[in-house]
Amino acid sequence: MKSLLYILTCSLFCTANILAQTVSGNVSGTDGEPLIGATIMVKGTTRGTITDFNGDFTLEEVADTNTLVFSYTGYASQEVPATGDLNIVLSEGIAMDEVVVVGYGTVKKSDLTGAVSSLKTEDLNPGANASVDQMMQGRAAGVQINQSSAEPGGGLSIRVRGASSINAGNEPLYVIDGFPIDNSPNLSSGGAGGIGANESPRNPLNSLNPNDIASIEILKDASATAIYGSRGANGVIIITTKKGKGEQLSVNYNAYAGLQTVARQMDILSTEEYITLMNDLSVARGQDPVFSASDIAAIGAGTNWQDEVYRDAPVTDHNLSLSGRAGSTSMYASVNYFNQQGVVENSGIEKFIGRINVESELSDRVTTGININTSLVSDNNNIDGIQTNENAGPIYSSLLYDPTEPIFAPDGSYNQSTNLTVNNPVALIRGVQSQGQTNRTLGNAFLSVEALPNLTAKLNFGTDRQSTRRDIYNTRATFYGGPAGGIANIVNLERSSTLLEYTMNYNTSLNENHAFTFLGGVTYQWFQNRIFGGSISGFPTDEIGTGNLSLGDTNTDALVSGREENTLLSYLARANYNLYDKFLFTASIRADGSSRFGENQKYGYFPSFAVGYKLSGEPFVPAVFEELKLRASWGQTGNQEIGNYASQLTFGTGPSVVFNGNVQGSVTPRRIANPDLRWETTEQFNVGIDASILNGRIYGSVDYFVKNTKDLLFNLPLPRSSGFQSVLTNVGEVRNQGFELLANSVNVSTARIKWKSSLNFSTIKNEVLDLGRASSIVTGDIQSVGNTAVIQVGQPLASYYGYVVTGIFQESDNIGESPQPNARAGFPIFEDRNGDGVITPADQTIIGSPFPDFTYGLSNSFSYGNWQLDIFFQGQQGADLLNINVIESLYPANFRRNRLAEQSLDRWTPQNPNAKWPSGVDPNAYGAGKVNTLVLQDASYFRLKNVQLSYTVPTTGQGLLSNLRLYVTGQNLFTITDYIGFDPEANSFGRSNVRVDYSSYPLARTYIVGLNASF
Question: Which domain of life does this protein belong to (predicted)?
């Protein structure tokens, strides 16, 4: 017995000595610089620490049998025995143990079972970015981001794994520091008297400061997005802003200034070419020449209207931030000023943004924090959008206006051609005043309490409030404002959102082989929109503009107002199980109740399941793989972006009636009720593999997914006898399927030379599977053009729909016996697809798709000593784009409009029978429709998106200045494409799946110089 007690006592004594061991050391990179905030964890436990400002660390009570795992973002992790003093040098690579933000929590990248693209600050696009989403463009596989308008502050269209909806939204949900925001565009159209008729959508993320971003996670598969339920069908983008770090206050100042130029102008006819064309066409039509020799002599060089509209424009940004920690409280604060003038005169954006993030540990078990972002965004915007004929904007009119006309009339007023129905472009630039201003404050506060060991309760309260006002005034200098004596429009929009959220998180381990995480919670969000606007004309002078509407003619006034509300009540749960640190299981469910849907379908339920298998370490896996993981997931998500009251019977203003001799107003039903209206449901299956070799120097990820969206929200046509045109109902199904590839590599890593590369590639096939009882839906109607697209089973959403042009009639052809007997030599030949011997609308067919076959992005980062060069290319292949500018040139509404040079100089004539384009002699007699294969263009492109060269000035670190970096950046330096418009990414319909280019804002080439200084 004594021997046994002796042995036990010795064992306990030895164990106590083992547990009492303290390990310390230093962590640095291969360049010898300390890594601040590197993570040191005891493998297989949740115990760990981080390095301080000098890269030093201390970890107490570590057994010498333990293994320590060292990791740092952008570096390969290392595992070493926990013995004595350690000096660890990490090589640049891919750290699988870095933390990734997911819905309502975080997870180690190595334990991730869903498909998530994670972008850190260094992964984002540098340069003059007015909004956060511009920084992501081309950087993530499976995420197509198109800047539908290149105007400063213009809207972007984002598709995560394709387009899935016809009438509901296709944009992802944004979550900013845990707050899901309303991602609808700011005020852009609608309102009183045509308010904003020529406006493009404003970007709802303009209120964020790109300098504040710490990381962006894009949740793509249902396993990752199902926790957001009815708003997760189009993907979720989680934006995390910077937090205070470091033991002492640090100050950072970042500033740049630059110049923007139009990347390319449209090639239209010069004055000389225009005169020749007008005379030749007039003679071919049997008329006298338009211009005589004396006319030509008087005209001289004429006017290059594009030169009058475009300009070189400055851009500047100043950002000051403070970060630090005092005791148990950390703080990050920033102020930002951004001013970007547009390359089109009278356009631009100016922003003032402030942010403060504070987090404090009130005790060992209680943490609280607050995040507040406030902004004032002002813009000038009277430029782009769908602008036709008399309502055309300056970009449109600069392409069509007669180059023989002068800018000013002899009396000094703006010259208006008597031969055209579009405005003088300069008169539009200076004669239309359009200013918008948005005040927005977004903030949330949280309280986190460790109620029990491993059980944390969190209460989160947030609010998002914005107020937008837009003033538009058309002066007498314009066709629109002249006859009306000036037209004033003012509209105010107020938006608010309030969030109340309670979650509980429980982490436990049965032993070192079984780890569990449970999440449960309830969330409530309330939204309200209010609008008020008015218009009036007939002012005594243009000097006051919108300053005093009472000066206008009250017989012309019009008012509009409205108020909308909707609520979302949700319950959520998620469970994670890690078995032997090898098998990973995730399950989640969310129940969403929305006021937007029918009385019989208020709640939807969105489950998901995912598994992961860490193959690395298995005897049958080659030792070359440090990390190898298989993933598979299935889940359902929803889409509720249909606007408010769509399931209810609504009323509008009806005709006036006479009752008992008195004129009375009336109301009439506008929408038929549908109490069974419910969510669109997206069901997605995903399988993926992640791999890391060569000590993290090469990392790759491949995903295959199938994404089916059913119960599409669709305005189903009704018989006229019903009294309604359509009813919003659930019908139809759309599928997106494809592959995604991400490959990161550290090609060279020495003390002086480094070279890193990253490639993302994705391919998505979109197909309509079902449309209920409708065989097809023709859509995309444009004034003077007609319908441009069709939704049809077996084809991509919003496929281009028109006629096939097979050639041009020649003088030797037997035209009278053709399906176009009234055609003449030089007319286009349309394919008689149904063989009935005549060209009719039945010969229309699908002629192209707006979706690319594949998209890609390639970045390379080179550094030598203190110099660094970053280069990023992006592109797409296989997409088509309907160029309405080509239609307007091919089918001019007025003979004297200018035209694209290619169409006119290579048009059919008896001397040029092999021309690509028709004769242009009598385009209204061509027959068929204006949407055809002649005007649909290949929008494939390869673009040098960003180049940045920087130099870090050596500092001792002992004085006031701790870091100084100087840089020059170029954006959109060149684009290789066959597309003849301003930008193959453009979409004048904004976020619509129907993509057209109609006098879109020209892409800018930007050059900036800047500095980043830390104190």
Answer: Bacteria
Q: Strands 828-830 and 996-997, how do they pair?
A: unpaired
DSSP run (H or E) holding 953: strand 941-953
Query: Measured on CA atoms in the order 201, 207, 209, 215, is the torsion positive or negative?
Result: negative
Cα torsion through 90, 92, 96, 102, rounded to 10 = 120
Strands 867-877 and 854-864: antiparallel
Which range, 246-250, 806-810, 954-958, is most confident? 806-810
How many CB atoms neighbour CB 777 within 10 A?
Answer: 20
What 3-state DSSP class applies to 275? helix
pLDDT mean over 391-411: 89
Query: What are the CA-CA distances from residue 563 to residues 421, 464, 526, 566, 638 (Å)?
Result: 38, 17, 14, 11, 25
**DSSP for 282-323, written as a single string:** HHHTTS--SS-HHHHHHHTT---HHHHHB--EEEEEEEEEEE
Q: What is the signed CA dihedral for 191, 193, 197, 199, rounded to 10 degrees?
A: -60
Please report the sign of the dihedral spanned by the C-alpha atoms of residue 406, residue 407, residue 409, residue 411: negative
For residues 264 and 1003, the answer to whether their CB atoms sit within 8 Å is yes
Burial code (b: 16+ CB inside 10 Å, e: under 16) for 113-125 equals: bbbbbbbeeebbb
Residues 6+ apart with CB under 8 A from 738: 142, 161, 162, 704, 705, 762, 763, 764, 765
Residue 570's beta-bridge partner residues?
523, 592
- Reply yes or no on whether the pLDDT at 631 is more than 70: yes
CATH 2.40.170.20 positions along the chain are: 132-265+310-801+849-891+926-1014
Average pLDDT over residues 475-499: 91
Which residue, chain included where needed, has tokens 């249902």? Answer: 222
pLDDT more than 70, % of the chain: 92
pLDDT tens digits along 648-696: 777 667 777 777 778 777 777 767 777 878 888 999 999 999 999 988 8
Cα-based distances in Å from 56 to 70, 85, 100, 686, 854: 12, 11, 25, 42, 46
| Rounded distance between C-alpha atoms, residue 435 and residue 240, angstroms | 31
Please say whether the structural domain 132-265+310-801+849-891+926-1014 has been given the CATH code 3.10.180.10. Answer: no
Neighbouring CB atoms inside 10 A of 759's CB total 17
Other CB atoms within 10 A of residue 914 CB: 8
pLDDT bracket for residue 533 (50, 70, 90): very high
d(CA 743, CA 502): 38
CATH 2.60.40.1120 in the chain is located at 18-91
Find the length of the chain: 1015
CA dihedral 782, 783, 787, 789 (to 10 degrees): -10
From the number of C-beta atoms within 10 Å of its C-beta (0-12, 13-18, 19+), residue 287 rates as exposed
pTM of the model: 0.88
Tell me the torsion sign for CA atoms 953, 955, 957, 960. Answer: negative
pLDDT at 297 over 90: yes
The beta-strand segments (E) located in 624-775 are 625-639, 650-653, 657-659, 662-664, 667-671, 680-693, 698-710, 713-717, 726-730, 733-749, 753-770
857: which strand partners? 760, 874
Cα separation, 235 vs 245, whole angstroms: 30
- Please name the amino acid found at residue 760: N
Residue 867 Cα distances to 482, 863, 954, angstroms: 58, 5, 11
Which residues are CB-contacts of 862 (< 8 A; sequence separation ≥ 6)?
A: 754, 755, 868, 869, 870
CA distance linking residue 411 with residue 473, whole number of Å: 24
- Tokens 């903030």 map to which residue? 443
Specify the CATH number of the domain 18-91.
Answer: 2.60.40.1120
Residue 498's Cβ-count burial label (10 Å; 0-12, 13-18, 19+) is middle
